[in-house]
Amino acid sequence: MTEQTPTTAVATSILTTDRLTKSFGGVHAVNEASVTFLDGKINGLIGPNGSGKTTFFNCVTGMIKPDSGSVQLRGRDITRWAPHKIARAGLGRSFQLCRTFPRMTVLENMLVAVQPHTLGDYLGGSHAPSTVERARAMLARVGIDHLENAEARDLSYGQQKLLELGSTLMSDPPFVMLDEPAGGVNPSLIERIAVLIRELNDEGTTFLIVEHNMDLIMKLCDHIVVFDRGAPIATGTADVIQSDPRVLEAYLGV
Ligand SMILES: Nc1ncnc2c1ncn2[C@@H]1O[C@H](COP(=O)(O)OP(=O)(O)O)[C@@H](O)[C@H]1O
Ligand SMILES: [Mg+2]
């Protein structure tokens, strides 16, 4: 393989869908969506409420089965794979609504994310010290290391989102999909999340961020897909997206 300079390098796909479709009753939540997200980039998926972002996300990560169409992860067909198998293939994810274990401590939540062999192992404290150290380092990175002994249910919503992000990162996924990481999070924590995403991207992690917060997406993302009614209506850089009349219409009804 010949080495390419950044100016001539052609971005390759990390995730491609072909006519992906999922309906709920009569609602076409995702409607023949064919999109590509790029390896090594911070990708964004935006769209008005109800445009199918979460359903798309759930189809791609195996949480729900699409009705038709296909999903390729690095060129490999993962359509209808079980979520754990997709995770093992390198796709880490977070949820729009937090999924932490409310009665476990923050540190315990981080440790279960790396899948101890059995719950007994975990309760018996058999995690290698390095795993615990890594968990603490990750908590420091997301800014909640001072809360390691607090129960997750006692954290603010924003702190729980940070915990969920931290636990998603514990398995070092090369590709991370985040569903509304900034939803319900206060501005200073949003800034922290943005900085962290950029740092991790610099270190080689590819992101796909599903967000309602246009400012965050425009600031962070190299490559943006805009959904409306379950399908892409625009694709490109922030500049391209922001001046696209179809995007303005979908958001503002102008
Ligand atoms: N489990 C479900 N059952 C029925 N309708 C659903 C379900 N999930 C999503 N929908 C509908 O599908 C559409 C897309 O929803 P969603 O994917 O959550 O959009 P977004 O994440 O962009 O806000 C909406 O009309 C929503 O009401
Ligand atoms: Mg959603």
Summarize the structure.
This protein has 254 residues and is an alpha/beta fold. 35% of the residues lie in helices and 24% in strands.
Explain this structure to me?
- The protein is built from ten helices and ten strands.
- It has 254 residues and is an alpha/beta fold.
- It folds into two domains: 13-90 and 173-254, Rossmann fold, CATH 3.40.50; 99-172, no CATH class.
- Bound molecules: adenosine-5'-diphosphate (ADP) and magnesium ion.
- Residues 15-254 form the ABC transporter domain.
Which features does this protein show?
254 residues; alpha/beta; Rossmann fold; 2 domains; four-stranded antiparallel beta sheet; 35% helix; globular; binds adenosine-5'-diphosphate; binds magnesium ion
In sequence order, what are the helices and strands, one letter per element?
EEEHEEHEHHHHEHEHEEHH
Distance N terminus to C terminus?
A: 48 Å
CATH architecture of the largest domain: 3-Layer(aba) Sandwich
Radius of gyration of CA atoms, rounded to a whole number? 19 Å
Helix content: 25-40%
Counted by DSSP, the helix tally is 10
In the sheet with the most strands, the strands line up as 6-7-8-3-9-10
Question: What's the β-strand tally?
Answer: 10
**What hetero molecules are bound to the protein chains?**
adenosine-5'-diphosphate, magnesium ion
The total tally of domains equals 2
How are the elements arranged and paired?
Layout: E1 13-24, E2 27-38, E3 42-46, H1 53-60, E4 68-73, E5 76-77, H2 83-88, E6 91-93, H3 106-112, H4 119-123, H5 129-142, H6 157-169, E7 175-179, H7 187-202, E8 206-210, H8 214-220, E9 223-228, E10 231-236, H9 238-242, H10 245-252
Parallel strand pairs: 3-8, 3-9, 6-7, 7-8
Antiparallel strand pairs: 1-2, 1-4, 4-5, 9-10
Bound molecules: adenosine-5'-diphosphate and magnesium ion.
